[in-house]
Amino acid sequence: MRKFRTAIALGILTGLMAGVFSLTAQAPAPTVPVQMTVTLDVIGEGKRMPVVYPEDVMVQQGKDRLKVTNWDAAKGERAGLDLFILIDDAAQSGLGLQLNDLRDFINAQPPTTLIGVGYIQNAIVQVAQNFTEDHAAAAKALRLPLGTTGAYGSPYLSVMDLMKRWPEHPNRREVIMVTDGIDRFRGGPRPNFLPVMSPDVDSASTLAQRTGTMIHTIYYPGIGRLGHNFWEATNGQNGLAKLSDETAGESFFLGRQAPVSFEPYLSRISRILDNQYLLSFEAKPAKKAGLQRVTLKTEVAGVEFGSADNVWVPAQK
User: Looking at residue 272, what is its pLDDT?
Assistant: First the structure.
């Protein structure tokens, strides 16, 4: 009888322990909230943008599908945008013919957009106009490029300088960078062990994704021997394309020629700004904070998402 009671007790204890282990195994993994800016686009010219609801947005982190918590159009109370126009002082003087297109673009922006203007020189940004609601003042700050790189000419170090000095604000963050993409700070003959593309491209991309900054680039030829060098110019375009692609921006160029007009490029950027959403979701954190790759998908026909390759995920608490 005593053995029978002992067996029952052991059975009950085993069952309780199995239940505890089962509950532990089924406990959800910890998550942290993150947010990123997403651009919607339609596939094909002249087609209307369909409505995309939160349940239509699929976010994947590796093989795991993450929970979407908010999907808000960047309009009304969520329309705030910090937009910085960044021009390379090493650009050829013919860029002056494009300044009216840039002024028209600036003046056409809604009141919810704060605009700043600055110039790439000496691996920093010479700010001509801090972020302002006064679009006329921002347009007035545009000037001809000086036709010099300074002692250290690097568009990538300069845009990093800009992002590090960016004021804290909940607005979307976007840059329109006009440059040939040539890193003159590292230009000229390179040892064989250095990569073809400037390593600062990756550094700028990482910082942009870390801070949620979308970078659009417009190629415009630069001055000097490097500006006329096919290899350097092509390499510069590759750097600009990579930077824009990884940060969800767009890159524009017409071969190695100066574009006749910026207007088509700026119209495309305006369309991008008009079709953006603020996406919030629950990501799975690691022990240390860092960038994690996420993939966005939808089953809505004819729609594609534009988003950064990675999102900054805080460390697990």
Answer: 96
Model confidence over 74-87: pLDDT tens digits?
Answer: 999 999 999 999 99
Distance CA 144, CA 8 (A): 90
Domain boundaries defined on the chain: 1-30, 32-75+275-313, 80-274
- Whether the Cβ atoms of residue 269 and residue 101 lie closer than 8 Å to each other: no
Distance CA 216, CA 269 (A): 8
Q: So what's the pLDDT on residue 27? A: 60
Packing angle of the helix pair 199-211, 155-164 (nearest 10 deg): 20
- What number of residues does the chain have? 317
Alpha-carbon dihedral 128, 130, 134, 137, rounded to 10 degrees: -10
The residue type of 281 is: F
Mean pLDDT within 233-255:
95
Which residues fall within 8 angstroms of residue 92, CB to CB, at 6 or more apart? 145, 147, 220, 221, 222, 223, 227, 258
Contacts of 266 (CB under 8 A, 6+ apart): 101, 102, 104, 105
- Return the CATH superfamily for domain 80-274: von Willebrand factor, type A domain (3.40.50.410)
State the pLDDT at residue 305: 95
